[in-house]
TrEMBL record:
This is Leucine-rich repeat-containing protein 14B. One of its GO terms (cellular component) is cytoplasm. It comes from the Eukaryota. Belongs to the PRAME family. LRRC14 subfamily. It comes from Pedionomus torquatus (Plains-wanderer). Keywords: Leucine-rich repeat, Repeat. InterPro entries: LRR_dom_sf, LRRC14/PRAME. The keyword Repeat applies. The gene is Lrrc14b. Coiled coil: none annotated.
Length: 519
């Protein structure tokens, strides 16, 4: 269904569709038309018009998320379109805003906000070329440095040097763009465009470089910190980070796999964990925490009890939680506030079915997203699952990949899922009866694709028919075999792959050297 457009917006589209005419007309247009023309230009991918609109922006703020979001004149939300043509035009237009000495408008711009751009899997822009978070970080840093060089080499209008614009941005730094971003941050004071990092993600980065750049970004402004793949941040490093850097506004924290390993805790490490919990307790804004693939057996209370603000999002997937950990979560003050919960990798039906039921009943009034992948949920557990999910009337996303469920059990479950009024997204496993007899769970990567694809398609059709007959065409279903889409991983997968190969080579070399020494 086409989004509603006002007559004003349709007129704006007609104007910007003729790029040459639109660019010539900018000087005579009323200020209040600029936001309208910007969204119309973005929709039609008119890069040159976007550039000129930004270069002559007449307002004190330029918030891309708000400009592209749902508006009175155009209900379509374009903030998920990371169109390369449009975004590059935005950023080069911003650079030229500083340099443009002949603009008929007084330079009022003080704040640019690029944080509202959403990276999604399917792009509908015509050019089909996206500019993800990593590429936006790269281009913005490059333009800031180019701007400095330009201002230093040429005799520009002194007014250009007096311009100071805060550019709020979500940075994504890896080994490949580290040097460029670091230089841009080091020279921030001299540059009219001042990078203000609101969210920071780091992958494939040496620990020393991570510690250096985290101090450069001004952590006092940081709301979201993601340290994800191939940053060897272990517990002692995390304690050092929290002792040396303060994050007063931090709302969301994601830690890499194996940050914690409770199996080998010494007395010193016990104290370390307590200190980390206390430091997190000082982060009064912290409401989202992800610690997947760490070993936290029996330590959840020690880590989370110092928190003064209830968590809304918790990812403890594959953290080897025991009964005491789950009991703490179910009985803690966090339970009534969980909006998103990931308990993947835990044998919920066998180890703590009643505690799980209690946890969901406490969080049911607010729970939006639930992930239970590889939880050994079998056909005999489906009724228990339905009873547990029944109170969760606000659930929007339910992911349960990797569970040994038959086609029949999935149909039974889908019949129930139709009754959840807010549900919009379901990720379900390949039915067990589509795999060869004797397959064991969790299924290894080599066997994951070895199923009867024709039978799967047939079952998927039946499941969608159940939704259709219940008038639930609004529910999207899928079976992403290798996990949900991650825009950051997708954008940097080549670098990630190269890093993993190098790590493997280094490990082999060390092993070979050890063998040589022994012989």
């Amino acid at each position: 269904r086409a989004a509603m457009k006002s007559l004003r917006f349709i007129s704006a589209e007609a104007l910007v569709s003729n790029a040459e005419l639109a660019r010539r007309s900018l000087g005579s247009l009323a200020h209040h038309l600029f936001p309208l023309l910007f969204k119309a230009s973005y929709l039609l991918e008119q890069g040159e018009v976007i550039h000129d609109l930004v270069e002559n922006w007449p307002f004190a703020d330029f918030n891309v998320g708000k400009l592209l979001g749902t508006t009175v004149d155009c209900q379509e939300d374009l903030s998920h379109r990371t169109c390369s043509v449009c975004l590059e035009s935005c950023l080069t237009g911003l650079r030229d805003y500083v340099l443009n000495q002949s603009s008929p408008y007084v330079k009022r711009l003080k704040v640019v906000d690029l944080t509202g751009i959403k990276d999604v899997e399917v792009q509908v822009c015509e050019c089909k070329k996206t500019m993800g978070r990593w590429a936006r970080t790269q281009l913005l840093s490059k333009l800031c440095l180019e701007l400095l060089v330009y201002l230093q080499q040429r005799q520009c209008d002194p007014g250009s040097l007096e311009i100071s614009i805060d550019v709020r941005v979500d940075l994504f730094v890896t080994e490949r763009n580290y040097e460029l971003v670091m230089q841009a941050l080091l020279k921030k004071c001299s540059c009219p465009l001042k990078i203000c990092c609101v969210a920071f993600r780091s992958d494939n980065l040496a620990l020393q470089k991570f510690f250096y750049i985290i101090k450069l970004i001004d952590p006092s402004l940081l709301r979201k910190l993601e340290v994800v793949h191939n940053v060897r941040l272990e517990m002692e490093h995390l304690e050092m980070l929290f002792n040396s850097v303060h994050f007063p506004l931090l709302m969301s924290l994601t830690l890499p796999a194996r940050t914690f390993n409770a199996r080998r805790f010494t007395a010193t490490e016990e104290q370390m964990l307590t200190n980390i919990g206390e430091k997190m307790g000082e982060m009064t804004q912290l409401t989202e925490l992800s610690m997947s693939f760490s070993i936290l057996t029996g330590r959840i209370q020690q880590l989370l009890s110092p928190l003064k603000t209830p968590l809304k999002v918790l990812d403890v997937s594959n953290c080897s939680l025991n009964h005491a950990d789950m009991a703490y979560l179910a009985n803690s003050f966090h339970a009534n506030h969980f909006e998103a919960l990931d308990l993947s990798g835990h044998n919920i039906p066998d180890l703590y079915p009643s505690i799980f039921f209690k946890l969901l009943s406490h969080s049911s009034s607010v729970l939006r997203s639930l992930t239970l992948e590889d939880c050994n949920i079998q056909d005999t557990h489906v009724n228990m699952l339905i009873v547990s999910l029944s109170p969760c009337q606000k659930l929007q996303e339910f992911r349960f990949l990797g569970n040994p469920l038959s086609s029949q059990a999935l149909k039974h479950l889908f019949t129930f899922l139709c009754e959840l009024p807010m549900l919009r997204n379901v990720e379900f496993p390949v039915p067990k009866d589509c795999y060869p007899v004797g397959v064991t769970y969790p299924i290894d990567d080599a066997s994951l694709c070895r199923f009867d694809h024709q039978k799967y398609e047939s079952v998927a059709e039946e499941l969608n028919l159940i939704l259709l007959q219940a008038n639930r065409e609004d529910v999207k279903t899928s079976t992403p075999l290798f996990g949900s889409y991650d825009a950051a991983v997708q954008e940097t997968k080549n670098e990630l792959g190269a890093y993993l190969i190098n790590s493997f080579k280094e490990t082999l070399e060390k092993f070979t050297n050890s063998l040589n020494k022994m012989s």
